[in-house]
Amino acid sequence: MNGNLFATLSSRIPEFSKGHRRIADYILSHYDKAAFMTASKLGESVGVSESTVVRFASELGYEGYPELQKALQEEMRTRLTAVQRIEVSFDRFGRDEVFKSVLLHDIDRIRRTLEETNTSEFSAAVEDIVNAERIYIMGIRSSAALATFMGYYFKLMLPNVTVIETGSRSELYEQLMHMTEKDVLIGISFPRYSRQTVYAINYARDIGAKTIAITDRTDSPIAAKADKYLLAKSDMVSFVDSLVAPLSLINALIVAVSIQNRELVSQNFERLDRIWEEYEVYEKNGGEQ
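Request: output the structure for the sequence above.
Response:
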């Protein structure tokens, strides 16, 4: 099933049976809780049987309740406030086993990212980056850390790399004003999605530049606008966004670009090694001064 789940539920409530209407009303009113309930628990909460919940999922076009639950979890992430996120994380993890639970969830995000990554799209994105005259990287709020990390390594490897840092729309366009159709913009955004990053993708497309989105789903605001998109799972842990899988994807991009530009990258790092040594940038092994 495609489209906005909440809009679908709202529009179809009049045609639902009494039991299905109860389920839809509960999901719309308590989506932060419903998203993590089993079919049995959801049925118990609204006063219907587990089988009624399963039939409800089928009526909406899902293969089963787990698929509906997954869609609900993805949809609700764009709606939750920070306070709601904290409440959800407490319900999921409680006070015990937080360390183990969070790390296991991150492992699962990397696994799902690996399974769902389109390798041909990944390779095409690498080609766009390698062949670009200038590379622009943009990530706002929590995604800024990812943009900074990518920018740091790309600047060591390649010339003409710019990490967009902006707090207003006017500043955004000032930093993009020299962009041409020979350039590439990499936009990074995860729920809650940044409107500024959407503006940047739209601007880049309007002038004919290549655009690459790094996001979490095919219908995210930047994936829908970009020429290419790379998906990484970032399911909510708490008010903190999990950036483990996105960072792993970016690591893979950095390595792939370095392999494609092996000669230039080698020359750059040979030069850097000499500079680092001459100006004592790093501590020597053994703690020598």
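The mean pLDDT is 86.
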